[in-house]
Design brief:
- This protein is mainly beta.
- The chain has six helices and 29 strands.
- The strands form seven sheets. It has a 15-stranded mixed sheet that branches. A three-stranded antiparallel sheet has the order 1-2-12.
- The longest helix is centred in the N-terminal third of the chain and has 7 residues.
- The mean pLDDT is 89.
């Protein structure tokens, strides 16, 4: 698991060359990192095994010729993964013991006595008095987590034709869906007690750095308070659940055309989140590794995957569809949505994974609640196909000019939601940028988030944000996903002609043009506040055919 980090991880900021005017690259050239991390691994392998079970009943009931119900109930059981190589480790947050007359919080737990054979001595020394228990001693399964047995998922749906002509249909439904724990819980917990994954902070003593190249690590790696337990899993972890519901009205407008109005909603509960269980409460004194104020001072970080995430989605869609007739076919839709969650972490840059994102504070479930990254509030999409109406006769000229087909895709959508971060700031005094990463910026109330004239040179307004002061006892005020990037406007088209040469042989020639109008679709701006590129755009979009215009001439022989 830690093979990529066996040569070390080095972080260069500007603090060693001056916190105000320093340059991280200068620190790199000097070979003086701000912090380092080194992993030594005895057993990097894992052989996980798991089984999943699901049972369901379902029934359809045609109440009347125009009204049908379907309903069912599903039960799932997902026993936790178990590692045949006994290389799994977990952390007991609520365990407490007395060692040498002092209370020690927490304990590492392994599957059984045989797992001690791969225990890394540096790991054992670096966690001090924290005990290492077997699953039997801790009273938990050898899989190191309990399995949920209450995964019931009801389903319900209906279809109704309210008019005798059958041209109007109303459909709706509700369903609960269970996310079984795939590899995240096992993959996160292996090679911990068999490894020494420690981090070290730079200190300057009499003008001389303690960590510098060619070996920027302490002579004694197993130092108390440097160990990263990355990562544990809640022993009572529940399978995440999503409730989904929808209501759709469809109307046949005639001429092969149909109108559709839809509402879709969902609510996610018990979603996965990751965070530091050893995190201090916001304070004005600051963070020190190994501080007795930490709940688990023998560790530098105890990262855990747990539940507590939630999501809420509401979307309205209006669409018109025309089946192919008289040489024309199209499908157009507009969607307006709101998509919010607290499970994507403190600085989401993509959709959250199974394990969820790293959150600002596990104790505050609302602080990271915001717009889902890269969801689009507004989206209009239209596809069309048109058989050009000339060349219908059997003449030689018609054979040349006829048979051409025009197709296209038109897309208009608003931009993605983004989060403003700032490097190095620690207003909460919890060591967040040191242990987790760059936190968010402060938001200045009443100031526009965007430049007066949004351009690639300046899309965001720097006056709307501020670098929070250090150790002021609170988290930054800029919310998750409160900034919207550039939208997308693109039209892509194709013109093709297909000729039958023989019964089973066809020749096709044509041209395709992506973004035929060559509209400039800017990529998202830089969102790292306090750096020179903040608010500027240095690239253009490439997905959805939104890049610079591209034209291709194609031919194809099919036989």
């Amino acid at each position: 698991m830690y093979a990529a980090q066996r040569l070390g991880v080095y972080t260069f900021n500007n603090s060693v060359t001056s916190s105000l005017t320093g340059n991280p690259f200068a620190a790199f050239l000097l070979g003086i990192p701000d912090k380092t991390q080194l992993n030594t691994v005895l057993q990097p392998d894992s052989d996980g095994v798991a089984h999943s079970f699901a049972f369901y009943v379902q029934d359809d009931w045609k109440v009347t010729p125009r009204f049908t119900l379907n309903y069912g109930l599903r039960w799932e059981y997902h026993p936790m993964f178990w590692d045949r190589l006994l290389n799994g480790t977990n952390f007991l947050l609520d365990y407490s013991s007395i060692v040498n007359g002092k209370r020690v919080n927490g304990a590492a737990v392994i599957s059984n006595d045989k797992a001690f054979s791969i225990l890394n001595a540096d790991f054992a020394r670096s966690i001090g008095n924290t005990p290492i228990l077997t699953a039997k001693q801790a009273g938990i399964p050898e899989s190191l987590r309990f399995s949920e047995k209450n995964d019931f998922a009801p389903r319900f749906g209906f279809a109704w034709r309210p008019t005798a002509d059958g041209k109007t249909v109303i459909r709706g439904g509700f369903g609960r869906f269970i996310q079984g724990p795939l590899g995240a819980l096992l993959g996160a917990a292996y090679a911990i007690h068999s490894a020494n994954q420690a981090f070290y902070n730079q200190t300057i003593v009499n003008g001389k750095p303690t960590l510098q190249f060619p070996y920027p690590f302490p002579a004694q790696l197993a130092q108390l308070g440097t160990q990263f337990f990355q990562q544990a899993g809640d022993i009572h972890y529940k399978d995440p659940k999503v409730d989904e519901w929808n209501l759709t009205i469809e109307r046949d407008l005639g001429f092969g055309t149909a109108l559709r109005l839809s509402y879709n909603g969902s609510h996610g509960s018990e979603l996965g989140r990751q965070g530091n269980a050893d995190q201090l409460a916001p304070n004005t004194t600051g963070f020190t590794a190994g501080s007795p104020l930490l709940l688990y001072p023998d560790f530098g970080l105890v990262q855990i995957e747990t539940n507590g995430g939630r999501s809420n989605y509401h979307g309205l869609t209006a669409g018109v569809t025309k089946r192919l007739s008289n040489g024309i076919q199209f499908q157009s839709s507009y969607t307006f949505l709101r998509n919010l969650t607290n499970a994507q972490g403190y600085n989401p840059t993509a959709f959250a994974t199974e394990a969820g994102g790293l959150v600002t504070d596990l104790r505050d479930t609302h602080i990271d609640y915001g717009n889902v990254a890269y969801s689009r509030r507004h989206r209009f999409l239209s596809t069309f196909f048109y058989q050009l109406p000339f060349g219908k006769t059997s003449s030689a000229l018609s054979q040349v000019i006829g048979g051409w087909e025009l197709g296209g895709v038109l897309l208009f959508q608003s931009g993605p939601f983004m989060t403003i971060t700032v490097p190095g700031a620690d207003p909460s005094g919890t060591g967040f940028p040191l242990l987790i990463g760059n936190g968010r910026a402060d938001l200045i109330p009443g100031v526009s988030l965007y430049a007066q004239n949004k351009t690639a040179q300046l899309w965001l307004n720097p006056a709307a944000f501020a670098v929070p002061k250090t150790n002021i006892g609170r988290y930054p005020t800029a919310p998750v996903g409160n900034v919207v990037g550039p939208g997308t406007q693109t039209l892509s088209m194709s013109l093709t002609k297909s000729v039958r040469l023989k019964e089973a042989v066809r020749f096709q020639i044509g041209a395709q043009a992506a973004n035929i109008l060559n509209h400039v679709n800017y990529a998202p701006p830089n969102v790292t506040f306090g750096t020179a590129p903040f608010g500027t755009i240095s690239n253009v979009q490439t997905a959805d055919g939104a890049g610079p215009r591209q034209i291709q001439i194609t031919s194809r022989l099919t036989f």
